[in-house]
């Protein structure tokens, strides 16, 4: 018998999602500044995507396993998803703090690997928690509130090195050394990551499994049986998941392209600087972080508007996501035509609209189409469609495609990102299941 889930208030949903503030601090600092760290340590810009490869490769393995394990976990004291929140928070905090102290490229790539794997341990159960706790009528609302918190985290974290510089912390250092402004920013991010996840753990209760006796019996099957179960779920994934997977593939290929190349592309194309030890480059790199913060800020306001709409009205998730992705495509393409740095804020405002939708609508559509008792493992499997495009991009997909289609200049990576979001937008038209598309 399926338990009837109570509708939760905004603040109850806020509390259960607040840990995403810290998770996004980690992702924003990683996405906005790891390429800067790689360049500072001597990486050629064409080699940067390859240095990211360990992170998505690990995610490909970690996400479905963690999803499955969290589905099979229950403790009256610690809950189902919360133990994974805590474990991921501890390792993420350590990795985030030490990443900017890397003295070689292999150390920085290793720190990124540990950081990304650890954040994924916490993140996937957070996605499942929304589906665990909320009735279907509040699913879109719940994922939108998560996106609101993510937007806040993206904006603040992306601006931290710039803010540290304004406080007088040096943003330049000797060649091959990461500036103190970046080190301090990562330390603040580590603190926020741990405390925000701890806040969710302390303020949120979880429902026990609906049939505890059956749950305990299934839990005794063993690890090998669990692996077989994961592969069985992969081969038998719902049709809606496959269709959404194509949307996710193009979407995350686009954003991985931005995270890998925004700093070298914008510092070179808009600011005209390439010397990573120069004050001009580091000022420009701080500014790139500020522009990236704009997409987080706009995603926050867009999510706030969506939170109001989804709490009052039924929406067409598919159409909303399609339009939002097209807005982001226009944002990426416009970066190529920027003639003054302030115009980048306008470009990233459009990117922020697509980012808010990417973080909410696909998950809302998916959660209405899978079995509740397998929510964790399916959320983990679904995120394979996030890491697979990143792996392809990191193995040379970005370098090959942008040079083949648009030409050698590194700014052409932003044109490629725009094209990919256009493909993602129109892939939504493949989704026909009304349970997924309509709230």
From TrEMBL:
Which parts of the chain span the membrane according to its record? 12-30, 50-70, 82-99, 105-123, 143-164, 184-202, 244-262, 291-310, 319-338, 344-365, 377-398, 410-431
Topology term for the membrane: Multi-pass membrane protein
Any idea which UniProt keywords this protein has?
Membrane, Transmembrane, Transmembrane helix, Transport
PROSITE patterns cross-referenced by the UniProt entry: MFS
Q: What is its main location?
A: membrane
Tell me which residues make up the Major facilitator superfamily (MFS) profile domain. 240-439
A single GO cellular-component term on record: membrane
Establish whether keyword Transmembrane is in the entry. yes
Question: Which InterPro entries does this UniProt record tie to the protein?
Answer: MFS, MFS_dom, MFS_trans_sf
Which locations, inside or outside the cell, does it occupy? Answer: Membrane
GO MF entries: transmembrane transporter activity
Cited PANTHER family: SOLUTE CARRIER FAMILY 45 MEMBER 3 ISOFORM X1 (PTHR19432:SF35), SUGAR TRANSPORTER (PTHR19432)
What protein name is recorded for this chain? Maltose/moltooligosaccharide transporter
């Amino acid at each position: 018998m399926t338990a009837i889930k109570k509708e939760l208030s905004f603040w109850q949903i806020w509390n259960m999602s607040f840990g995403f503030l810290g998770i996004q601090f980690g992702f924003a600092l990683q996405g906005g500044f790891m390429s800067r760290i790689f360049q500072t340590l001597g990486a050629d810009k064409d080699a940067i995507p390859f240095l990211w490869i360990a992170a998505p490769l690990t995610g490909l393995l970690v996400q479905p396993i963690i999803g499955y394990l969290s589905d099979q976990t229950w403790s009256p004291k610690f809950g189902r998803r919360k133990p994974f929140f805590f474990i991921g928070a501890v390792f993420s905090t350590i990795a985030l703090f030490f990443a900017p102290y890397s003295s070689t490229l292999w150390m920085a790539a290793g720190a990124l690997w540990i950081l990304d794997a650890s954040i994924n341990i916490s993140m996937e159960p957070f996605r499942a928690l929304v589906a665990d706790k909320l009735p279907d009528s509040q699913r879109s609302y719940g994922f939108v509130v998560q996106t609101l918190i993510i937007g806040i985290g993206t904006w603040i974290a992306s601006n931290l090195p710039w803010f540290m510089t304004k406080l007088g912390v040096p943003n330049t250092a000797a060649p091959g050394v990461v500036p103190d402004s970046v080190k301090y920013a990562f330390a603040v991010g580590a603190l926020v990551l741990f405390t925000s996840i701890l806040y969710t753990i302390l303020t949120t209760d979880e429902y026990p499994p609906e049939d505890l006796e059956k749950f305990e019996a299934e839990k005794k099957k063993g690890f090998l049986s669990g692996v077989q179960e994961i592969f069985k779920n992969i081969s038998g994934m719902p049709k809606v998941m496959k269709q959404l997977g194509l949307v996710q593939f193009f979407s995350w290929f686009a954003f991985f392209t931005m995270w890998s190349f925004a700093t070298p592309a914008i510092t070179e194309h808009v600011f005209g600087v390439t010397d990573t030890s120069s004050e001009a480059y580091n000022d420009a790199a701080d500014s790139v972080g500020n522009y990236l913060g704009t997409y987080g800020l706009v995603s926050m306001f867009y999510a706030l508007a969506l939170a109001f709409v989804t709490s009052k009205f039924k929406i067409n998730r598919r159409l909303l996501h399609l339009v939002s992705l097209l807005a982001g495509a226009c944002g990426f393409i416009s970066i190529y035509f920027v003639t003054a740095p302030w115009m980048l804020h306008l470009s990233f405002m459009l990117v922020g609209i697509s980012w808010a939708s990417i973080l909410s609508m696909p998950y809302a559509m998916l959660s209405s189409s899978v079995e509740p008792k397998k929510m964790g493992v399916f959320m983990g499997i679904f995120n394979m469609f996030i890491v697979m495009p990143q792996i392809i991009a990191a193995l040379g997909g970005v370098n090959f495609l942008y040079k083949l289609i648009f030409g050698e200049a590194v700014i052409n990576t932003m044109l490629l990102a725009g094209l990919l979001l256009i493909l993602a937008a129109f892939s939504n038209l493949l989704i026909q299941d009304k349970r997924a598309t309509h709230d």
